[in-house]
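Reminder to self: keep the SMILES exactly as supplied, no canonicalising. Ligand is 2-oxoglutaric acid.
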Amino acid sequence: MPVNSIELDHNDNGLIEVFFSRDVRDRLEDAFSQSVDLSLNVDHQIELAQHVLHCAVGFEGSQVLSRLGASTAGEGAVLFHIPHDRGVHFSPPPGKAANQAKSTGIVERMMLALSSQFGFAYAVKAEDPEVIGHLIPRLEAYSDFTGEGSQQELSFHSENSVWRHALPGFDLAPRALLLAGVCEQQVRGPTTPIAIVARAVKLMDPAMANRLRRPCAHLSLPFRHRREGSAKRIGPVPILLGSLGREELCAALYPGMIEFDEVADEIALSELAAALREVAIPLRIVPGVCAAIMNGAIVHSRSSFEPVIDAQGRAERWVERLFTHARPESLLHFANRERVFDLRLPI
Ligand SMILES: O=C(O)CCC(=O)C(=O)O
Ligand SMILES: [Fe+2]
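Structure tokens returned for the bound complex:
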């Protein structure tokens, strides 16, 4: 069995970095090198990838991973240094499958393998057709507030916040998200800062923080989830959840996503936003890293950038994203195929 297959580095800012030994990296790179097709047999591919990872890291390594996944170690922000696909310089052009832009599937299999520690891997149909989504800047989405946009900063947000409240009793928001780099925009590429919400709340006036614990906010559905004839927002709901020192933020702070009835609540949110910027951990999601982020305890953002896109529409930046859920039976109320769920608000 491999000894010291995994090493952890605890940063003062709260981020835990995970390094696999040379031997483990080589084994994973070998075992995961075949190209990937996520249109079929996703359960099986996840089980296989997880088995390979566990065999590579051994029992002690698996223990380390499961503690990170259970959040009993750390504050919910983990950066895995992973083997990755080599020689990939561009994303697939619009409309083309990811596996046409590269011949190996190392990043996807690493994400599938790691996802099991954080829950049940899935995607939301309104955003992604397969369990792993592709965050690629597109010219037609240049000024959108989505993962395909680039001109606008995506301010701090938790993912799919509305789905935490939309069906009372069913938390349909991801427990965690994994973000991994496939290729990188070399010049002036974006950053993906993250922030530990509890650390930010500690910097706030407690009375202001308490305002956000009241049902004070109306949350809009993410842009791509909105449907003709269906509600476009829910609320009022609290946006700061949880006990002192372990707060979670359930909101998206970019324009158009949140409305308050009282101006004082808006001021409280700007105070929180400033505190989040103060504790922010600068990350770049580039080849060789996979960030695992507990959704809510950690919020993430993406800086604005000018995307580099060639004449065929291929971007230099390509990030992959996967959600995990803690209670998949809640998702099973919705139509699904290969772990992609068609979430809908009740009429
Ligand atoms: O592109 C990134 O680095 C993150 C994008 C993001 O937060 C999103 O698509 O929700
Ligand atoms: Fe996001």
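Points to follow up:
The radius of gyration is 20 Å.
Residues 157, 159, 300 surround fe (ii) ion (ligand 2) (CB under 6 Å).
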